[in-house]
Amino acid sequence: MVQHNLFDDSLPEMEPGQAWRELALIAVQSLARTHLTFTTNEVWGAMPVHTPINKRRAMGPIMNAAVKSGWIENSGQFVTTGSHGRPIPVYRSRIIAQRSAVA
């Protein structure tokens, strides 16, 4: 049994479930409609405030699903912001690119 501090306002962290995955995909699709490029940091920022997930790597499968759906593609570029300097992939919107090609 896990005990939580009664005076702690934060929510306990949980494993990503189906509802969380759907929210994450909505966040990715929304960013792909409004940003030419973005990282998973922006996706996390677009998520509802209280989405306590205990594994930051949970976003990887979401990004892979968005690539397979044709919404985004990996740009081959990386940024190093926070996260102890680890490289973060930059994704490019295919939604905006498709709109630009039609116009």
Index terms:
3-stranded antiparallel beta sheet, alpha+beta, 103 residues, 4 helices
What do you see in this structure?
By secondary structure, this protein is an alpha+beta fold. The chain has a domain of 61 residues. The chain is built from four helices and three strands. A three-stranded antiparallel beta sheet has the order 1-3-2.
What's the end-to-end separation, in Å? Answer: 58 Å
**Principal-axis shape:** globular
Total E-strand runs = 3
Helix-strand sequence: HEHHEEH
What quaternary form is this?
single chain
Spatial ordering of strands, largest sheet: 1-3-2
User: Low-confidence segments, ≥5 residues, pLDDT <50?
Assistant: 1-11
List the helices and strands and how they pair.
Layout: H1 18-34, E1 37-38, H2 40-46, H3 59-69, E2 72-79, E3 88-93, H4 94-102
Antiparallel strand pairs: 1-3, 2-3
Helix pairs in contact: 1-2, 1-3
